[in-house]
Every structure is written in C-alpha cells, then in structure tokens.
C-alpha cells in the first residue's frame, strides 16, 4: 500500500532565473508543471470556484498574482530533499523561505510526485474547510494547521516557488519539497484579499507595472523594487543590532523583508 504524508512551515528567499536551474534532476517540464499546478489552483480560487466541504465555495480573490519559478528556491529545496528526512528544515537552511513537504512510499517519479503533491496540498481545503470563509474572513489563525499546505499555496504574497524531488531507497519514499517567497501562514495576516478576480490591468494593484491575465483572473508583474529601507535609518540600525535581521527572528518578515531590506541585506 502506498502511503502519502504532508507537512509545512513558513519563511522567504531571493529571485533567480531559469538559466541557473542546473542543480537538480528536474526537467523544465517538471518546473512548468508544478508552477502551472499552483497557478491553475490560484485561478480557481480567484474565480470563486474553490470547493469547500459543504458544497459551497471559498470567497473569490482580488489581487491574486501568478507564481513564477525560482532557481535559488529549487536549489535549496533539492539540497534538503536529498537528505531523505521527512521533517522540516531549519529556518537557516531555507533562508526564511516558506516550505511545503509531501511524501509517498512509492518510487513514483518526478512528474507524478509534483502533481500529487500539489493536488494533496490544495485538497485540504475541500477536505477540512476554513470556518471563517463562510463570512469572507481569510485571516490565517493558529488553528489552521490542517489546511496549512493549502494556505501556503493560496497565500497572495507568495509569488515565487522552487521545488526538489528525491527518491530515497533506504527508507523507501519519494519526497517533494517546495519553498515559497514570500513565506505565508503568518498568524493574523490575510491569506488573500477577498474580491472579484481581475478583469483588467487596473485591478492589479499590489505590485507596480502589473498586468491581468483575464482568462485566469490572475495578475502578474516583472517589477523589481529598489533596494531601499522603508523605515528611518536609526530604526533599521537598532533592529539590526537587536538581531531582527536574522531569518530566525520572529521579526524577520516585517523588518528584513519589508521595512529594512537594504540594512538587512535582504535585497
């Protein structure tokens, strides 16, 4: 009998191009497959067609962006997958990236493993549901661990993904590791913005220079923000001295990824 297990955690990393995706055995078709799986599911959610257990649907999403593939994230994911340990990596190992894990006891190959992982992670929504969705509340809460893989896939601010796959014959299992930037699943933060799927470029407002894929109801942008601090220098220097720039700090998402990107050397 084949056994499938899942696991997840939160955190964040930097962008890279397909051209340096040279570490793992994944093919470009594999990378496109897992990227498309995420975007297909995000499109279903944006259009208000994501199933809940009671036959109803999750609230539709405005400002939902496509994910794109990131080779730095892939390299980290593949390095960890090759350890053949089905437990989460440390925050330092993944430089603060979000992390979803999947395991099957069969040697099912990369393509099947990637598709099954995406289907299993997203399937948590229909299997378990989210109570707040009935009132259009998409706030992530500490009691949502049963749907944590889904929420990471649906997290609106997670727009980069990179994955690794490894067959582990000594402890027979195929492991999938997917890392996300920016990390999701922060308590009391919104999973996504409730609203209508985009129908024009003007409705994609989260990132400058955005466009709307009207057929998918998803936004996209190639905009790269300047490497700068949003908070005053004295504040960033104090936070850096206090250790808030470290990816193990609970303040890392706010300080290093948002307010003090230049001081924390996170851009």
From TrEMBL:
Keywords tagged on the record: Signal
ShKT domain location: 227-267
Domain of life: Eukaryota
GO cellular component: extracellular region
Keyword Signal: yes
Residues spanning the signal sequence: 1-19
InterPro entries hit by this protein: Allrgn_V5/Tpx1_CS, CAP_dom, CAP_sf, CRISP-related, ShKT_dom, V5_allergen-like
Pfam family name, one: CAP
PANTHER family noted in UniProt: CYSTEINE-RICH SECRETORY PROTEIN-RELATED
Name used for this protein in its record: ShKT domain-containing protein
Organism of this sequence: Acrobeloides nanus
């Amino acid at each position: 009998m084949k056994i499938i297990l899942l696991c997840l955690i939160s955190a964040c990393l930097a962008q890279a191009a397909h051209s340096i995706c040279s570490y793992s055995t994944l093919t470009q078709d594999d990378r496109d497959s897992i990227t498309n799986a995420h975007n297909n599911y995000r499109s279903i959610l944006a259009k208000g067609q994501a199933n809940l257990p009671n036959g109803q649907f999750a609230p539709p999403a405005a400002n939902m962006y496509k994910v794109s593939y990131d080779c730095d994230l892939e390299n980290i994911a593949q390095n960890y997958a090759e350890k053949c340990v089905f437990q989460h990596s440390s925050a330092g190992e993944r430089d603060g990236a979000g992390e979803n894990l999947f395991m099957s006891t069969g040697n099912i190959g990369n393509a099947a493993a990637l598709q099954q992982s995406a289907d299993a992670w997203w399937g948590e929504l229909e299997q378990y549901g989210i109570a707040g969705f009935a009132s259009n509340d998409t706030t992530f809460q500490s009691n949502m661990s049963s749907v944590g893989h889904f929420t990471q896939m649906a997290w609106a601010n997670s727009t980069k993904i990179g994955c690794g796959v490894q067959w582990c014959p000594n402890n027979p299992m195929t492991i999938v590791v997917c890392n996300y930037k920016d990390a999701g699943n922060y308590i009391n933060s919104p999973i996504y913005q409730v609203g209508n799927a985009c129908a024009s470029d003007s409705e994609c407002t989260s990132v400058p220079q955005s466009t709307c894929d009207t057929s998918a109801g998803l936004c996209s942008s190639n905009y790269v923000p300047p490497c700068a601090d949003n908070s005053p220098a004295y504040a960033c220097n104090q936070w850096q001295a206090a250790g808030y720039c470290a990816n193990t700090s609970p303040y890392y998402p706010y300080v290093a990824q948002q307010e003090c990107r230049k001081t924390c050397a996170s851009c």
